[in-house]
Amino acid sequence: MEKIDAWIKGCAAGRRVLWLHGPAGAGKSAIAQTVAETCARRNGLAASFFFARTAARRNEVKYLFPTIVVQTALSAPEKRQRLDDILNQDPYIAERALGSVDLLASLLNSAQAPQASSPFLVIIDGLDECQRNRDQRWILEQVSRMVNTQHLPLRFIIVSRPESHLMETFKERDLWNLTNLNVLSLYGDYGALNDVSMYLRSEFSRICGAKMHRDVMRFVPRPWSSDSIIERLVSNSGGYFIYASTVTKFIDEEYYSPVARLDHIFGTSNSSSELNPFAELDQLYIQILSSYPIPDLHVLKLILGFAVMSPVLRSRSLFPFFPSIEDILGLAPGQVELTLRGLRSLVSSTAIHDYKYPHLIHASFGDFLLDKARAKDYHIDSEEWIYTTFRYVFTLACKSLDPQNCASQGRFLISSIGIIKEQMCGL
Fold first, then answer.
1. Is residue 283 part of a domain?
2. Are 59 and 127 in contact (CB under 8 A)?
3. Cys-Cys with 58: which of 18, 52, 158, 220 at CB 3.0–4.6 Å?
4. What is the CATH number of the domain that holds 148?
5. Structurally, how many domains does the chain consist of?
6. Sheet with 121-125, side-by-side order of all strands
7. Which of 276-280, 353-357, 399-403 shows the lowest mean pLDDT across its residues?
8. In this predicted model, what pLDDT tens digit does every residue of 91-100 receive, in sequence order?
9. Where are the alpha helices (DSSP H) in 238-274?
10. Contact by Cβ (8 Å): 29, 22
């Protein structure tokens, strides 16, 4: 928030487009909403549009620029009069292909110079939730044209997941002058572990004192819950709020014991195994996995298996035994990156021993993939993955045996693979 606020208050000639991106459930929309409210109080917000995949009038590009035009016109009396004048002269301007974009340019390029206090910030949140990839690119092209070609007195905050086609569009030098583009990522250092811990402690305290839970919670020692439980939940969240909010919603449901619900999350409850505390989270994962074409689901699950098993492989120092994933699985070079192209909000890449291996951004995504009832078609059977992967490894290693000394090399190979498999199965 401090960095965004500093960018907003920066000199007018500075970078005029800010791309805020981050993984699913990182709190991007919460940040965008807070920025919008703060700037509105300062009379600095010209317009905002929040795309939503499941809302009929918030998932199509055709509603974006007309909304921005109307909000911008209503943000200042002189702009509203200017819009009336334009529409009186050309009533059908918004019906043309680029009509609403041109209308915005005409609105802001009035003869009267804009006042210093005139609202100038436009926020477009959830760009990746606009229906079609080509429409998302088109929006960025129009924003670039307004900033770099038409030099409109606006600044844009674009908020989205780091989808591949959006990353590529933001890197196109023909569209973006590097002095006009600022990028802020919610990965890495912005994993808000402390904030999630504070949020969970606050919510647990609220739940403990809530009237609807008093029949159960009056017998529970304060504070509730223990530090170790909070730390486990924070670790599972990976620093992202969607896990923490899902947990608290599940625990806080009326007519249920918060204590029993918390036990159920950690698998220590006797309640029905069909009860899923992470239904909301699972819906997000399924939506992301199903939103792009997967040429070969079997290959995708094998690749994701490396990400799920990554902590095991790293803890046992087993990565030196692995070449690239493409070599192991017999895939064409670059196939792993291509297969994971649509999952950048869930899976990143980590360089280990000169090779890139997939890494899960959300620890809870691994739990999801390993649970057949939750993941359904995307379920990864850990034992089957180990068997299949080491069959590939064994086949690949046998191809490199020296014919003059294959017996001793083969015995060493079988022994090594047996030890690795035994360690992994043990974990």
1. no
2. no
3. 52
4. 3.40.50.300
5. 3
6. 45-50, 121-125, 155-160, 17-21, 181-185
7. 399-403
8. 888 777 677 8
9. 241-251, 258-265
10. no
